[in-house]
Every structure is written in C-alpha cells, then in structure tokens.
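Continuing from yesterday's entry. The apo prediction looked reasonable, so today I'm repeating it with magnesium ion included to see how the binding region is handled. Same sequence as before; SMILES copied from the compound registry.
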Amino acid sequence: MKKELTCHQYLDLYYYMRLNRAVEDTMTKLFRQNKIVGGLYSSLGQEAISVGTAYALEKKDWVAPMIRNIGALLVKGVPPRDIFTQHMAKYTSPTLGKDGTSHFGDLEKLHIVSPISMLGDLIPVMTGVAIGARYLGQKIVTMTWIGDGGSSTGVFHEGLNFAATQKAPFVLILENNQWAYSTPVRRQVPLENLADRAKAYGITSYIVDGNDVTAVYTTAKEAVDRARSGDGPILIEAKSMRMRGHAQHDPAEYVPKEMREHWEKRDPITLYEKFLTEQKILDAKTKKELETKIDTLLESEREFAENSPLPPPDLAEKGVYCTGDDCHKIRPKWERSLAEVTPPKSSVKPVWVVEGFGPGKSSAAGNAPIHFGDTPAAQEKSENERKLAPKAPAKTVMKKPAKVGASAAGARKARSPQKVGSPQKVGR
Ligand SMILES: Cc1ncc(C[n+]2csc(CCOP(=O)(O)OP(=O)(O)O)c2C)c(N)n1
Ligand SMILES: [Mg+2]
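Holo prediction written out below.
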C-alpha cells in the first residue's frame, strides 16, 4: 500500500469498512434470531471494494449497488437503520416493508438506483442514467457492480457494448470473488483476467487487488475522473474472495480449505489496520473512539428497527400498480422546450417509402415516417428496380431495395432478383 491520500480520507475509508462489517455482523445476529425476513448476503472480505469504489464518487454521481455492496450504500449516505428495517420488512423501511432484502434506492437525494435481481441488467440501466444526465448537461458519472458469474450474462455484454458505443461516463466494477454460487471462475470463464472482457468493446480496463482499499480507491478515482472527462466507460476487475457462502443458507463446504486459509490471511480490514498503524495514521485511542462511535450508532439503529412496526395488512394491495402521483412523482426534466423535441417540429421527412405503408400518423397526430438515415430518396430507382418493377407480383413493393429493416420477402427480392415473379418462392 502506498501513502497518497489525506489523513482524513484514510480514516474515512477505515471507518466505512468497519461500519460495513459491523452492519453485516449485526444482521447476521438478527438473522439467527429469525428477525430477518428475506435472504441475507455477506460481503465479508470484499468490504474494500464497495467502500473504495463508492468513495471515489462525488455526491452528484449515481450508483446502483448489488447484494454485496452495503459498503457503497453507507458511503453514499444511507443510514444503517434503512438497511436493518429493509431486511426486517418493517413499515419504517424505504419500501415500507414490501421487500425483505436490498431492493431499495433513493432517486431524489442520494442518487441510488435500486438493485435489479436479474444479474447484469443494471449495466444498461446505469448507461442510460449516464447518457441521460449528459443530455441534460450534468457532468456526472454512474457506477454499478457485477460479479464474476454475472459477467457471463448476455446483458453484461449488450450493456457494455452499448455503453462503449455511447461513450457513457460509466464505471463498472467487476467483483471477482472467485465463486458464483458453488461454481469457481475457471469452470465458467476461459479467461485468467475478467478485465479482458473490456477488450471486446474497445474500452479501458484495470485490474486491482480488491483487498487493498487504497489501491481500490486510487484506481476507482482515476477511472471516475477519466469517465467524467469523456474517455467513455471503464471496467475495473477487483480480485478478492467471497469469505462466506452465497447467502446465509450456504455453508460453502465446496471451498477448498487451502484457498480459504490463503484469503483469511489477506483480510482487507486487518491489512489496512496494519498499514494505518505503520504509517502512524491510526493509534489505539483513535481506533477505540471509532469503534465506540460505530457501536453506539448501530445500537440505536438496531433498536429503532426492532421497535418498528410491520406494515399494516391493507398496504399489500397498495402500490402494486402505478396509480399516478400517489405512487411516484417522477417527471421528465426537459431542458429544451417541449415543442422543439416533440412532433411536428421534431419530425423528419421520410427518405424511404414503402408503397401502401408509407408515412403514417403517430399517436401525437404528427408524421411517423419510416426513416433510415442515408437511404437514397424514394424517387431514385436503381437500374435493377427499373427492370424488375413491371414483374413485381406483390402489392407492397419497395421503391428502393435496401439492406436495412426491409420485410423478409422484400429483402429476399432485393437480394435475388431472378426470383421475382415466382411468388411461390418468395415470402414463404
Ligand atoms: C440473469 C440471472 N441469472 C441467474 C441469477 C441467479 N443468481 C443470483 S446470484 C447468482 C450468482 C452470482 O455470482 P456472481 O455474479 O459471481 O456474484 P457473487 O454472488 O459472487 O457476488 C446467480 C446465478 C440471477 N439473479 N440473474
Ligand atoms: Mg462471484
């Protein structure tokens, strides 16, 4: 570990890692007392990743944490009581007790998009948030996290490709914790480094020791700065180890003993404490003060959660479908006049017309033309078409055979002019 941050920053990182672990320790106890309603996932051994990456963001930036990112929630400013009440399905929780795990966010103040259980789906979502904000002139960066297993989903690749083509100010943290349920990385990906996935999309990637919080923070800060300055999306692979089973139900007996022992010696908090002590940033007194602060905070937050009521029964039928403003008050924030960005002013003239199918009316009563960019204008018939036009059997004839978006029959006609006039061979 190198010394690069201010004393205050070093101690902040330490505080959040200790808070992350203490919150999860408290929840494990609550789980064993049967007070946790949903699943409980542990980020033991991965605290440096959540904390170090989220700490690299500014207040205005947006995150979408996954199940092992309680550290990122805490850094973003979520109070521990929200995490406790949420997992205990209490009425005082952000979802009013409707969800028993981590499906909650805060779009208004903290800029947190709720986790989506389908692995990978947050990648296109956070790409959308990034490019939407850029359109609105906001210089923000978005961030989400994905596991080694999640990096093999289709949407991971679609999302990252989309982010790359859009040059979205988006940073993706790939937490390689060696396992996806009971599947080790080598059994599901033929790669040594998952950061290599970035090469397919022409984007920058980093590999970082996920158990070294200083390294995680400095790498994430560089990536966030680059994304903010317009370099496009960045992938960071943080190598670490999932030190518990997939969730509380899983004793993870499939993990080899030697592997577990190797990583136990690399506990991120123990490593960091050693570094802070050697650098004379942390002494026994400061450590004690910080522990007391965390204990006092969590004691009152846990009590609040335990004493909170469960939701009233009639809440079950509320909020199932969006009923307008009493459900949620999200409004589009138009930065240009509405008339300018909606038809008819925003309409474009059709450049490609299909007979009997041409420009229609949109629901807003404006033109809804079929528009394929630089396709030549409809009037210009090709040499081939002029020859073929009289023989064309079908009613719907394309004026200009194009490779783009044509109907299957039309496309075949365009490619196989010799078959035009033999309807039995076309469009079947
Ligand atoms: C698209 C999709 N497929 C499968 C699942 C079920 N599932 C939930 S967690 C998980 C394992 C994820 O492993 P990894 O991405 O490595 O994350 P980790 O649990 O190690 O943090 C799976 C398969 C899911 N939620 N979404
Ligand atoms: Mg994993």
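Comparison notes:
- The pocket of magnesium ion (ligand 2) is lined by residues 147-149, 177, 179-180, 242 (CB under 6 Å).
- The two ends are 67 Å apart (CA to CA).
Will overlay with the apo model tomorrow.
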